[in-house]
Amino acid sequence: MNLILASSLECSFKNEQGERVAKKFENKNGIYKFLEKLTPKFDNFVFVASSENDFEVTDSYSNVIFKSFDMTFPFKNYIVLDGRTKDRTNEIIKSADFIYLSGGHVPTQNKFFQNINLKTMIKNTSALIVGASAGSMNAADIVYSQPELEGEAIDPKFARYIFGLGLTKVSILPHFEKGEEFFLDNKNILKEISLPDSKNRPFFA
């Protein structure tokens, strides 16, 4: 198994109408050579959703990712793994050549991964696994789950450390460069929560 952790592959842009449009993603950090070298076959691309049942959002994002890869590294088949296909999880993961762990709300995605027992099923895959944003975060053994939604920053029961897929011991915090602008529940999340947390358990920005 090979694993790439990313904030984003930058597969899209927003047009003047605010619509997300697919584009050929850039060769940042020489990622093309890793994708070519580490993908066993360009047959089955599996998009693992961030939410089990939010089909509209999943379809919107997965369609953009599929179109972007069609422009950049085309695959024969594109499959979405979410609540509609979860009964075939084992079959889908076994046949995968490329597994894309999508972005989204970290705890929601983490719960979906647990519901389909993805940690066990993904363990022996020969596919290249690429995490984007939340997908990269949930790939870790211990996931640092930064508050994202209203109420989470002030909720004493919100778990900022949760168990992930165990594919790596590296915990990452993506989109770090935007962190100083992120205010939630009247808190600067980076300065008031995440940086103090990093002194207890470090993460890669």
CATH level 1 name: Alpha Beta
Mean pLDDT: 94
Order of helices and strands: EEEHEHEHEHHEHEEEEH
**CATH homologous superfamily annotation:** Class I glutamine amidotransferase (GATase) domain
Query: What percent of the residues sit in helical stretches (DSSP H or I)?
Result: 25-40%
Beta strand %: 15-25%
The helix count comes to: 7
CATH architecture: 3-Layer(aba) Sandwich
Annotated CATH topology: Rossmann fold
Q: Mind describing the biggest β-sheet?
A: 5 strands, parallel
Number of domains: 1
Distance between the termini: 24 Å
Please outline the helices and strands:
Blueprint: E1 2-6, E2 12-14, E3 20-22, H1 31-38, E4 44-48, H2 55-72, E5 77-81, H3 89-95, E6 98-101, H4 106-115, H5 118-121, E7 128-132, H6 134-137, E8 142-144, E9 161-163, E10 183-184, E11 187-188, H7 189-198
Parallel strand pairs: 1-7, 4-5, 4-6, 6-7
Antiparallel strand pairs: 2-3, 8-9, 10-11
What can you see in these coordinates?
This protein is α/β, with parallel strands linked by helices and 205 residues long. Helices cover 30% and strands 20% of the residues. It has seven helices and eleven strands. The chain has helices at 31-38, 55-72, 89-95, 106-115, 118-121, 134-137, 189-198; strands spanning 2-6, 12-14, 20-22, 44-48, 77-81, 98-101, 128-132, 142-144, 161-163, 183-184, 187-188. It is globular, with a radius of gyration of 17 Å. The mean pLDDT is 94.
Question: What is the compact description of this entry?
Answer:
The chain is of the alpha/beta class. The chain contains seven helices and eleven strands. The chain has one domain: Rossmann fold, CATH 3.40.50.880.
